[in-house]
Write a structure and sequence with these properties.
Layout: E1 9-12, H1 18-29, E2 33-38, H2 42-52, E3 57-61, H3 67-81, E4 84-89, H4 104-125, E5 129-138, H5 153-174, E6 179-185, H6 191-194, H7 199-207, H8 217-228, E7 239-242
Parallel strand pairs: 1-2, 1-4, 2-3, 4-5, 5-6, 6-7
Helix pairs in contact: 1-2, 1-8, 3-4, 4-5
């Protein structure tokens, strides 16, 4: 098996379930050691570590929207494996609110995890990122969808901030040899996506895609694996809309 990420250490926030868990498995399969960050339930994180193997995976509980917890997360990662080569800011919340529905608490909780968290994760990890390291942020293809509906306002508002962070950080950190890119998935079959949706609605959303299906967490994880490797060495500041053609351009 090819192991292009052998010797590298990946820190992945929100890694116990869904896209984060698939990303941990993918990066480990490519040879990286992975930090499985989680915020609440220990069980799924420990199960994932056992699946990957304790020689390659380690779980750390931390709130990815709290700066002090982020500092501790970075420190424990470096204490455990001595370095950080791949930083994946996957943790986020999908709070669907129209303008009229949004409370100040809604806004603050969404921006705290979706924007503040990634911002300070990069800041705190930066002293440990050597040249050729990769920072991978997460947006959403909804940020580029013409048929967007009003209930997505709060969510895409936060993801728009991430896309601008990607553009500017790529210019800044690129001078240090560090790439910064953003993955923007389309509808993806995760536990969070299915929550509260009828079978009919899921089928309708899948029909928007020319492939006639939802994305799977593994589809997104493979893109992260590419961006984390040497083959993406000349890719910087890009927003990859990984959605099977649901949105184009």
């Amino acid at each position: 098996m090819s192991t292009p990420l052998a010797g590298k250490v990946a820190l992945i926030t929100g890694a116990s379930k869904g896209i984060g868990a698939a990303t941990a498995v993918e990066l480990a399969s490519l040879g990286a050691k992975v930090i499985v960050n989680y915020s609440a339930s220990t069980g799924p994180a420990e199960e994932l570590v056992a699946k990957i193997g304790t020689e390659q995976a380690y779980a750390i509980k931390a709130d990815a929207g709290d700066v002090k917890d982020i500092e501790r997360l970075v420190k424990e990662t470096v204490d455990k494996w001595g370095r950080i080569d791949i930083l994946v800011a996957n943790a986020g919340i999908a709070n669907m609110k129209t303008l009229e529905q949004t409370s100040e608490e809604d806004w603050e909780s969404t921006m705290r995890l979706n924007v503040k968290g990634p911002y300070f994760l990069v800041q705190k990890a930066l002293p440990h990122l050597a040249p050729s390291s990769s920072v991978i942020l997460f947006s959403s293809s909804l940020a580029n969808l013409s048929a967007i509906t009003p209930n997505y306002l709060l969510y895409v508002h936060s993801k728009g901030a991430i896309e601008q962070m990607t553009r500017v950080l790529a210019k800044d950190l690129g001078r240090k040899g560090i790439s910064v890119n953003c993955v923007a998935p389309g509808p993806t079959g995760t536990e969070l996506f299915f929550k509260g949706k009828s079978d009919e609605l899921v089928k309708t959303i899948a029909s928007w895609n020319p492939h006639g299906r939802l994305g799977m967490p593994e589809d997104i994880a493979k893109t992260v694996g590419f961006l984390a490797g040497d083959k993406a060495g000349w890719v910087n500041g890009q927003i990859l809309r990984v959605n099977g053609g649901m949105t184009v351009g």
